Fold this sequence. Notes:
Blueprint: E1 9-14, E2 17-22, H1 25-33, E3 38-39, E4 42-46, E5 62-70, H2 79-89, E6 91-96, E7 99-100, E8 103-104, E9 109-116, E10 124-127, E11 135-142, E12 182-183, H3 189-195, H4 202-218, H5 224-233, E13 237-244, H6 245-251
Parallel strand pairs: 11-12
Antiparallel strand pairs: 1-2, 2-13, 3-4, 4-13, 5-9, 5-11, 6-9, 7-8, 10-11
Amino acid sequence: MWGDPQGLVITNAGPNSFILNFKSQEEARRAYEGGPWRIEGHMLSLQWWSSNLSIEEVNYNQLPIWVQIHGLPYDKINIKNAERIGAIVGRVISAEDPFVEGNMLRSFLRVRVEINVQAPLKTEFWFKRKDTDHSWAEFKYEKLCDYCYKCGRIGHDRRTCEEELARSLVNSEMPRYGPELSTPGLKSIENEARKAGIRRRKEEQNNWVEELWEARERSMQGREWLKRQAQKNRGESSLGDVRSSQASASAKSWDRSANPQEQMGERQVAIQEE
């Protein structure tokens, strides 16, 4: 799954919970940023274990995932709108610029966010445009699995769901959730640029790399963790803990106070032209 990283040590930390010890900081980063991952059809929640938390205090309810935004016209496809729209889904970690050196390499937007696995997944939203009153755009989640087609929550399927069937915001006669919400993972925009023979100017490339590192540090619950781990382990990284979404469901009660018919996707998004 992670390319058999050299020296990886996995220890049991409780029911369906594990600590991953990587010998390489780079391999730990790739495992974390390449998620979400799945084992036997169940999604894993990988979290950095901050030095000031006990293993019981690690939060598994936030899942980093790449989200695609489809259905936008050409003049709305830009990184600023990716950030704005991504905030509907969850906390924005980083947004991908679909343009490299003035060349459009994607026909949709892509943003990495942390989503709350206890809340129903967002599916669509509407926005104003010049030629019509409004249009619908839709979300797709990369590598998504183990979610309910009835209520849209991660961690169980419709056979065990007690909620009413959620209806599409566009057509109330159609179900809101289905297999089309999931899509395969993509390589980075930099990889697409290399395939097309396009290279960023050195200064822009350096800025892009710095942004990735900043996003990573923000998601690790404080930069102090990095410093302490580097001093303590001399480059050895611990990624803990790994838990399947099914285990989260059995270990913790799902938040049934949230309305499964929550219409967050109905709100209008202010997006700009470029």
